[in-house]
Design goal:
The chain is α+β, with helices and mostly antiparallel strands and 238 residues long. The chain has 5 helices and 12 strands.
Length: 238
């Protein structure tokens, strides 16, 4: 919703860096080859989750400066042609991941010559539903609740880290979050008034997930927690 996993006796797969509501850990730029999958396409990416006053969310993935990194010109052309065919069919990894979470997905190829620019968006009915689907796809049980009263809004998520089962993780979602990314939850209107597990920016209109590594859990006052509580509270304009 690239979360750095906590150190354990066995090697763990990194936890996602975002939770559409915030459970992330490492974020910030480079686009993973996994996101663009089949071809060796490299570039940069940003993730923005636009949060509406009714709890609806549009998750937008902007991938820019995309190109094959193959050394041979013919191989580069082949890889880029395969990538463009995936995009045209709506089957590229970002679209597949958002679709697997239950999103209504749309794709726009903003620049159709190398380096390419691609925008992929998934529309979701409610942020709490997206949060649960996101963690479930990572093999981590979670319960999320969205509440509204007048101009006030609140999202809470209980993430059961102790019950994580990596064997249940969805490869499509891992392709979206398995490398450092940049994630932002952006209010369509209003301001955040409180947060647990997030850093607020831009006059409290943007929330950036802190992550679920040891340092982040300690900063949240939840070190070594089997279940982690994440929360966002905001007030809409009226």
């Amino acid at each position: 919703m690239s979360i750095i996993g906590r150190t354990t006796a066995r090697r763990r797969r990194p936890r996602p860096a975002l939770l559409p509501l915030g459970a992330p850990a490492r974020f910030l730029l480079p686009l993973t080859a996994a996101l663009l999958a089949s071809a060796c396409i490299v570039g940069r990416t940003d993730h923005s989750l636009y949060l509406g006053k009714d709890g609806a969310v549009t998750w937008t993935v902007v991938a820019r400066d995309l190109r094959s990194d193959a050394g041979d010109a013919a191989e580069r052309a082949s890889e880029e042609a395969d990538f463009l065919a995936q995009v045209a069919a709506g089957e590229h990894p970002a679209a597949a991941a958002l679709r697997s979470l239950g999103g209504e997905v749309g794709t726009t190829l903003v620049r159709d010559e190398r380096p390419f620019v691609l925008v992929t968006s998934g529309r979701f009915r409610r942020i709490d539903e997206l949060a649960e689907a996101y963690f479930r796809a990572l093999g981590i049980p979670a319960e999320a609740r969205f509440r509204q009263r007048g101009a006030l809004r609140e999202l809470t998520v209980e993430v059961h880290l102790a019950e994580e089962d990596e064997d249940l993780a969805d490869d499509a979602i891992l392709a979206l979050v398995d490398e450092p990314q940049r994630f932002r939850i952006v209010l369509e209107e209003g301001r955040f008034t409180g947060a647990v597990g997030f850093h607020l920016e831009e006059r409290d209109a943007v929330a950036v997930p802190l992550g679920l590594d040891d340092d982040a859990l300690a900063a949240m006052g939840q070190p070594d927690a089997a279940t982690v509580l994440l929360a966002l509270r905001w007030r809409i304009d009226r």
